[in-house]
């Protein structure tokens, strides 16, 4: 397996101007003809023309009309090399492929009898021989031919320019994409599909046709995706002045898909999970997910498609930027400040849950990686989510207008080009007359920086000092780090909880706002505030202005003050999380030391105040009441003991419930949403708080609280409430009550749960996405051990070939059921190894994702480490392991 390095980038030996493709679609033997016109790139030193190809049968190859002599080219497993080509070439290549056998879901494949493609990052080479690299941009024309009955719909990128009948019951459609694009944005879809369509008027007055294509039974689930698409189009016009550049924009849903969705030019292909929704089958989270993914793919039309990446090391150029754009879109769709904060909290939760551990583990890499074995492994939370944080920092540093100026210059300079992260940074710097040289380190250095904060108040002089010390832990292959350019948004609260006005000697306050963005650029830096009338409580890193870990010695009182009053809702939440975390760490240590567990009333009081403060949005209160996850706690520890963490977290939840039963019940009852389902922010927040209260109440092992969940299940009018109830039931403490007095209550609860699980399955057995939820609930349930998992894996509805289904059960168990996955006997890891090996043979990309579950094995207790190592070695030594999986396993074992 070869490692590819960023430093080795060289430009392509030929440019491609046009690509004309012809497809004779057949599931077992599809014929593909590709005519390309190429011209030599005089900037390249490479003489030969190297085309990538994988798993292709070459039928014929002609150059400038002549059959190419067998001595003029060479073929190996991955490429076709043409020796001494002339400077201008018309190349005709015919290949044959077998889409039905393609279980990798990369290239051209069949799902449910229909044809789909997935070409990012390197799938186009599974269709034809081509310089399959993003800096080769060309104009495409595509002719699709297929049996008309079996494949009535024939779609590709751009505009439909011709269609008609062919002999033998076949038909054709010809598509032309007016814009230059890299091969990874090529797409075709063919099959039995129906669509919801709407015409809209764009800002310039032009009209565009929007279509959402699905299988026949799903037309009642497309409205939300269509609404989200229209909102995205209007938002990009309004916020960035970017208009849809095509006359037609299509979204197609497919149930077999490796990721969330793909931004192919004019023909976005989506996982059904991010298209299909109605109240019956989709939760509030599903609705939000659809809005954000539809937005994300649409926004790629400019950030990714019109301006693309020079090479795959630059992936965050399009992904980080587009995630930032979709986050801003979702926030603007909510509109309120509090809604924005709730979104921000969710994004940061996700960063901490997944990216911080990645940045500290064996797969750690900079936002712009230096090397890879398999590029699919670098569609990572670092490239996406940390990449979005990096873009957000430009926004924080340059302000709303400044960022927009940078974006405008970026498009002015680079439209229809393949460029680098440095080009983006240069546009931001030049448009604002700023020096952003040091900012480059966010792209080149991996690891989560630590920011130590200390403060001094001089009552006599009325001065206040904030000192920062930054450092960054060593990461794989990077031992020494240089200081980052960190924007730290700061506010100071007075004793009454109000923001104080700020005067800082080192940093001018642009407006007379009460939040100041301090630019920390040195390893150690002090900021002096003057005219500070009383000792303040500092609110540091407001709105999470940089992806760093802040270390600061807050007292519990400081945190309670911030939780109660900070005008920055993010930091209000953060204060609550800090209060919880310090207790969770103490409790975990107490569990390990066999000491009694205790929780102080100060913390419970602080939570109770938030829970009962009805002036706060329900959504915000729900976020405050949600404890740091087991993974968050694990990241704070030197050695991870999953069972101690679980016990500590469970103890805290039951103590909160013991003290706040009545308040939780009130929260439950006062947030019932009746009437027609609507996924708006207010109703969503109410349902979230109500369902959280319900889940807390299950810590109180009584039949009355269990009945509350059971009744909610039976009466549920929407999927959020139904799944919320079922989740509460399956995790209810009453089910694990050991004493004989509660035996009958336990039995009754178990019976009710079994009945509900059966009822749920029967009611939704024809809704694949809902059955995924059913599997996820069970895979992550506290009671699902390895034995139960093995039974579930044998369920007739379970399959490894569908990524959604495989993920629903297996990823739930391996990533969201720590107590059972980390069983002391190592049986969870043995199951993991079996499944990685099985999945590897079907779909290496999905297998490699699962392989990541043991990334952090070196941090666990010695006994668990031993079992994990055995499992990792089992995978490493298995036969035919793909480079996708091997890269992960080898890095973990290194
Ligand atoms: N740009 C896409 C990334 C992607 C992908 C999508 C689906 C299947 C396989 C894929 N490999 C890479 C998705 C996005 O970020 O929008
Ligand atoms: Zn993307």
TrEMBL record:
Which Pfam families does the UniProt entry name for this protein? DUF3458, DUF3458_C, Peptidase_M1, Peptidase_M1_N
Keyword Repeat annotated? no
Q: Where is the Peptidase M1 membrane alanine aminopeptidase domain?
A: 225-442
Residue ranges constituting the Peptidase M1 alanyl aminopeptidase C-terminal domain according to the UniProt record? 556-894
Q: Which UniProt keywords apply?
A: Aminopeptidase, Hydrolase, Metal-binding, Metalloprotease, Protease, Zinc
Enzyme nomenclature, EC number: 3.4.11.2
Q: Write down the required cofactor(s).
A: Zn(2+)
What is this enzyme's catalytic activity, as reactions?
A: Release of an N-terminal amino acid, Xaa-|-Yaa- from a peptide, amide or arylamide. Xaa is preferably Ala, but may be most amino acids including Pro (slow action). When a terminal hydrophobic residue is followed by a prolyl residue, the two may be released as an intact Xaa-Pro dipeptide
Start and end of every Peptidase M1 alanyl aminopeptidase Ig-like fold domain? 447-551
Q: Which GO terms describe its biological process?
A: proteolysis
Keyword Zinc on this protein?
Answer: yes
Q: Where is the Aminopeptidase N-like N-terminal domain?
A: 23-185
Q: Which InterPro entries match?
A: Aminopeptidase_N-like_N, Aminopeptidase_N-like_N_sf, PepN_Ig-like_sf, Peptidase_M1, Peptidase_M1_dom, Peptidase_M1_pepN, Peptidase_M1_pepN_C, Peptidase_M1_pepN_C_sf
Q: Which GO terms describe its molecular function?
A: alanyl aminopeptidase activity; metallopeptidase activity; zinc ion binding
Per UniProt, the enzyme's principal EC class comes to: hydrolase
Q: Function, please?
A: Aminopeptidase N is involved in the degradation of intracellular peptides generated by protein breakdown during normal growth as well as in response to nutrient starvation.
The family assignment reads: Belongs to the peptidase M1 family.
PANTHER family from the entry?
PUROMYCIN-SENSITIVE AMINOPEPTIDASE
Name listed for the protein in its UniProt record = Aminopeptidase N
**Annotated source species:** Sapientia aquatica
Name of the gene this protein is made from: pepN
């Amino acid at each position: 397996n070869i490692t590819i390095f960023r430093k080795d980038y060289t430009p392509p030996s030929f440019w491609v101007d046009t690509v004309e493709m012809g497809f004779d679609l057949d599931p077992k033997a599809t014929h593909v003809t590709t005519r390309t016109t190429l011209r030599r790139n005089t900037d390249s030193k490479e003489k030969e023309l190297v085309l990538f190809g994988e798993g292709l049968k070459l039928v014929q190859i002609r150059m400038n009309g002549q059959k190419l002599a067998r001595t003029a080219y060479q073929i190996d497993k991955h490429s076709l090399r043409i020796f001494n080509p002339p400077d201008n070439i018309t190349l005709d290549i015919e290949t044959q492929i077998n889409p039905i056998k393609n279980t990798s879901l990369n290239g051209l494949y069949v799902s449910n009898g229909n044809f789909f493609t997935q070409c990012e990052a390197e799938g186009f080479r599974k269709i034809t021989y081509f310089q399959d690299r993003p800096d080769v941009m060309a104009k495409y024309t595509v002719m699709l031919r297929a049996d008309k009955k079996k494949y009535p719909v024939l779609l590709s990128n751009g505009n439909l320019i011709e269609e008609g009948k062919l002999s033998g019951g076949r038909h054709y459609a010809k598509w032309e994409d007016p814009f230059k694009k890299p091969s990874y944005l090529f797409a075709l879809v063919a099959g039995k599909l129906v669509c919801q369509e709407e015409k809209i008027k764009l800002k310039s007055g032009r009209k565009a046709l929007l279509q959402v294509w699905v299988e026949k039974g799903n037309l009642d689930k497309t409205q939300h995706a269509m609404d989200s698409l229209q909102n995205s189009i209007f938002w990009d016009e309004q916020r960035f002045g970017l208009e849809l550049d095509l006359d037609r924009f299509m979204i197609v849903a497919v149930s077999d898909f490796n990721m969330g969705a793909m931004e192919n030019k004019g023909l976005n292909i989506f996982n059904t999970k991010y298209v299909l929704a109605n109240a019956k089958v989709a939760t509030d989270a599903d609705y939000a997910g659809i809005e954000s993914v539809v937005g994300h793919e649409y926004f790629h039309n400019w950030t990714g498609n019109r301006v693309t990446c020079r090479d795959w090391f630059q992936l965050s150029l399009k992904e980080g930027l587009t995630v930032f754009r979709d986050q801003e879109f979702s926030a603007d769709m909510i509109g309120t400040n509090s809604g924005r904060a709730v979104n921000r909290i969710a994004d940061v939760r996700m960063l901490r849950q997944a990216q911080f551990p990645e940045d500290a583990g064996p797969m750690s890499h900079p936002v712009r990686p230096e090397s890879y074995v398999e590029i699919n492994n670098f569609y990572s939370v670092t490239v996406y989510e940390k990449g979005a944080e990096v873009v957000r920092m430009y926004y924080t540093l340059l302000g709303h207008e400044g960022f927009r100026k940078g974006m405008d210059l970026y498009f002015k300079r680079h439209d229809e080009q393949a460029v680098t992260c440095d080009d983006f940074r240069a546009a931001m710097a030049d448009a604002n007359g700023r020096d952003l040289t040091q900012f480059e380190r966010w792209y080149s250095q991996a690891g989560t920086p630590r920011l130590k904060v200390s403060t001094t108040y001089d009552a006599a002089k009325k001065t206040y000092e904030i000192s920062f010390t930054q450092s960054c832990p060593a990461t794989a292959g990077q031992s020494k780090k240089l200081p980052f350019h960190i924007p730290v948004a700061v506010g100071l609260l007075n004793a009454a909880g109000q923001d104080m006005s700020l005067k800082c000697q080192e940093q001018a306050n642009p407006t007379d706002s009460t939040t100041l963005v301090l630019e920390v650029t040195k390893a150690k830096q002090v900021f002096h505030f003057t005219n500070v009338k009383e000792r303040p409580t500092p609110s540091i890193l407001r709105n999470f202005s940089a992806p760093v870990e802040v270390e600061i010695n807050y007292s519990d009182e400081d945190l309670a003050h911030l939780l109660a009053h900070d005008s920055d809702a993010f930091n209000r939440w953060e204060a609550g999380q800090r209060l919880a975390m310090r207790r969770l760490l103490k409790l975990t240590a107490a569990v390990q030391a066999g000491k009694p567990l205790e929780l102080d009333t100060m913390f419970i009081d602080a939570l109770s105040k938030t829970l009962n403060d009805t002036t706060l949005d329900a959504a915000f209160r729900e976020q405050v009441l949600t404890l740091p996850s087991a993974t968050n706690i694990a990241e704070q520890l030197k050695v991870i003991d999953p069972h101690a963490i679980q016990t500590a977290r469970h103890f805290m939840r039951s103590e909160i419930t013991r003290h706040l039963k009545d308040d939780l019940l009130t929260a439950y009852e006062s947030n019932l949403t009746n009437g027609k389902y609507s996924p708006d922010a207010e109703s969503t927040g109410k349902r979230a708080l109500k369902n959280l209260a319900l889940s807390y109440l299950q810590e109180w092992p009584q039949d009355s609280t269990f009945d509350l969940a059971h009744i909610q299940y039976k009466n549920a009018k929407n999927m959020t409430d139904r799944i919320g109830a079922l989740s509460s039931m399956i995790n209810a403490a009453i089910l694990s009550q050991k004493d004989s007095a509660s035996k009958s209550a336990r039995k009754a609860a178990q019976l009710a749960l079994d009945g509900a699980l059966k009822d749920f399955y029967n009611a939704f057995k024809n809704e694949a996405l809902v059955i995924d939820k059913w599997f996820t609930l069970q895979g992550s349930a506290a009671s699902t051990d390895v034995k139960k998992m093995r039974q579930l894996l044998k369920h007739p509805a379970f399959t490894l070939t569908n990524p959604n289904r495989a993920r629903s059960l297996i990823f739930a168990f391996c990533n969201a059921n720590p107590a059972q996955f980390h069983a002391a006997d190592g049986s969870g890891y043995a199951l993991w190894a079996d499944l990685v090996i099985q999945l590897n043979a079907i779909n290496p990309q999905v297998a490699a994702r699962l392989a990541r579950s043991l990334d952090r094995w070196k941090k666990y207790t010695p006994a668990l480490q031993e079992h994990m190592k055995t499992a990792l070695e089992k995978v490493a030594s298995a036969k035919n392991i793909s480079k996708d999986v091997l890269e992960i396993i080898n890095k973990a074992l290194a």
